[in-house]
Amino acid sequence: MFIEKIDKEIILKPLQVVIGIVERKQTLPILSNVLIEKIENQLQFTTTDLEIQITTSIDLGILFDQNSSFTVNGKKLHEILKVLPESSSISIELKENKVQIKSNKSRFSLQTLPAVDFPEISNQLDNSKIISLSQKMLRDLIYSVQYAMAQQDVRYYLNGVLIIIDGNQLKIVATDGHRLAFNMGNIEGFFEKQEIILPRKAVIELYKLLNDTDEIVNLEFSTQQVKITFSGITLITKVIEGKFPDYERVIPKYSNHLNMEKSIVQQALQRAAILSSEKFRGVRFILTTNNLTIISNNSEQEEAHEEIETNYQGEPLDIGFNVNYLMDCLNNISNNVATFSFGDPNSSILISSPESLNFRYVVMPMRI
What is the pLDDT of residue 9? Predict the structure, then answer.
């Protein structure tokens, strides 16, 4: 017997922590599996896709006679535990190359693969540095930029977020070449400048696992690897090698600012987006004294026209933007007021907020 009569939730909760990086179809069958280990009085769960590894453990409060381990298909085990009735008690028994899960009158037999074949990521944290900050701060920073990451771009260094540790500041940047999001916060200590690019999958998984609390998260990083520990979870990821674009050159400094209530602009953009071109998703911003007009049209010669009263006093402007890029920003900032800053008709738009002074979001213009 591997473990006898335990509440299914005790197994399900740590399994849910590690299961996110497991893919159903893998070139190596063992990458679909979760490694489960009995170590002294703990049960440890590990998954990997060879780029990212997540480990967490639970303390069962009993000292095992001997350590043991096995690997089993993570998705199948997760689904079995999820559909068992609440408060179900389960037993797990190893028999040759199978694991049997029993609960009341339910029986499941799953194939296992040897734990010794599980490809755990090797330590590449030589000469590493460690910074500490609250989970809430890191989670908020990731949330404020993650939507601007590229997806499967041939410029592989854009498929993630850039993290810069510089002095007592942690800066975070994401861009897909059409828009860029930047934010930063203060950390304890003082560090030499170092830049690392976290892969997209690691960023998404990390955001899901972080809590909105003041509990501490530690980031240990080298030029090849990042190790992130918090709340009994350890996430190790390779970093993306490559030169990230110079974000400082992309963020403009404008003197032409317009403060607007976020929800009013959001709703106007949502309505205008309905009749925008499905392919290009363009909308026009036409700024005149005390007025913003948002116009969209499509190949069927349909048109949407929205007007918003403003306090704009600058030169008249007519600029086109991708409506999805504007909406992504407004949907992912919690502030009630957004500041829109403009240059000339061929320049990007800068969105910031008087409530979050470090946040910057840049969208390149488009011809409509």
Answer: 95
